Amino acid sequence: FQPKLLAGKRVLMTAGPTFEALDPVRGLTNLSSGKMGFALARACAEAGAEVTLVSGPVSQPTPAGVTRVDVKSALQMREAVLNHVSTSDIFIGVAAVADYRPVETAADKIKKTGETLTVEFTRNPDILAEVAALPAAPFSVGFAAESRDLDNYAQGKLSAKKLKLVVGNLVQDGMGGDTNQVVLFDAAGRHPLPLASKDEVARGIVSHISKLLS
Ligand code: C5P
């Protein structure tokens, strides 16, 4: 009999993009299918964890046994995460959170009057950094999707956001598709995983998390 790797653990996760409304019909978002996050939620549940998945707008089915909380904006995502974080052992931020949101959301549809349109944006809170800095922070895991210089940026995030693990991938490897190639960065260094389906990569991440926890 092999005990499940995350039996008894409570996992809180974010996945998908956020959508920052500009007016009732438009907004700013990120390219994120949610596939990697949903695969990871499935792998955590299969490993015996109790999983709460806070998801931005995606068209992914909810994995069996996973509690899903749907949100749109980064501020809503932050609120949902903070509502659940005190009862979580592990937090995994997979969401592609928009870095900025419009300062104002127009109540009515913006009409095309001028030749140019200027919108002022303000920084969104960093949900992952905030969770990892809590006095009773869960074991916190982040993702780093970069278009270049992956090692530098991923290692930078590990220390700047005080994380236990960063899953790094070059965006051209993973975006939108069903396979991904990632490198895991932790205090001991870098651990590349082979190119595989997102489900297999997710199981590799779960197995690394369980090793770090024990
Ligand atoms: O700094 P960067 O946005 O590249 O960091 C990516 C990691 O931080 C991901 O794990 C992402 O889910 C998380 N993040 C967050 N809130 C933000 C921005 C990023 O939780 N506002």
TrEMBL record:
Cofactor: FMN; Mg(2+)
Annotated keywords: Decarboxylase, Flavoprotein, FMN, Ligase, Lyase, Magnesium, Metal-binding, Multifunctional enzyme
Keyword Ribonucleoprotein assigned: no
GO molecular function, one term: phosphopantothenate--cysteine ligase activity
EC numbers: 4.1.1.36, 6.3.2.5
Residues reported to bind CTP: D99, K109, P125, D126, I127, L128, F143, K157, K161
Highest taxon, organism lineage: Bacteria
Pathway assignment: Cofactor biosynthesis; coenzyme A biosynthesis; CoA from (R)-pantothenate: step 2/5; Cofactor biosynthesis; coenzyme A biosynthesis; CoA from (R)-pantothenate: step 3/5
Region Phosphopantothenate--cysteine ligase: start-end pairs: 11-214
Catalytic activity line of the entry: (R)-4'-phosphopantothenate + L-cysteine + CTP = N-[(R)-4-phosphopantothenoyl]-L-cysteine + CMP + diphosphate + H(+); N-[(R)-4-phosphopantothenoyl]-L-cysteine + H(+) = (R)-4'-phosphopantetheine + CO2
Note describing how the cofactor binds: Binds 1 FMN per subunit.
Entry keyword Lyase: yes
The DNA/pantothenate metabolism flavoprotein C-terminal domain, residue ranges: 6-211
Protein family membership: In the C-terminal section; belongs to the PPC synthetase family.
Role noted for this protein: Catalyzes two sequential steps in the biosynthesis of coenzyme A. In the first step cysteine is conjugated to 4'-phosphopantothenate to form 4-phosphopantothenoylcysteine. In the second step the latter compound is decarboxylated to form 4'-phosphopantotheine.
UniProt-recorded name of the protein: Coenzyme A biosynthesis bifunctional protein CoaBC
Species of provenance: Uliginosibacterium silvisoli
Gene: coaBC
Residues included from the entire protein: 181 to 394 of 394
